[in-house]
Amino acid sequence: xxxxxxxxxxxxxxxEGWDKLWALRSRLEIPISHIKGARIDGDATKGWWKGVxxxxxxxxxxxxxxTFYTQGRLVFYDAHKSDQTIVVDLEHENYDALILQVRDPxxxxxxxxxxxxxxx
Length: 120
What we know:
- The chain is about 15% helix and about 50% strand.
- It has two helices and nine strands.
């Protein structure tokens, strides 16, 4: 599970609990200017093939956590439940997208979209 907060000019994605071990990451700090957009997308975690696992863990249907290379893109996953999943699209970052499970997808989406719309 991921906790999403805003810290000055960046959005912080804090990996919680055992997911730190599975994902091999504890925190991602992304400059607001590097976030293209976000959306709720339960389909992003469906299916067993996520790409070539660079580091992390995957048990299909249970957990996908870590860095995966798929279709020429690097994607960071931390998701267990598809109904709590958001996708954050990035530019000028190592990752092209973040696919994350959050407690309240609507609230996380509102926070991210409000933050990136206020940067202009």
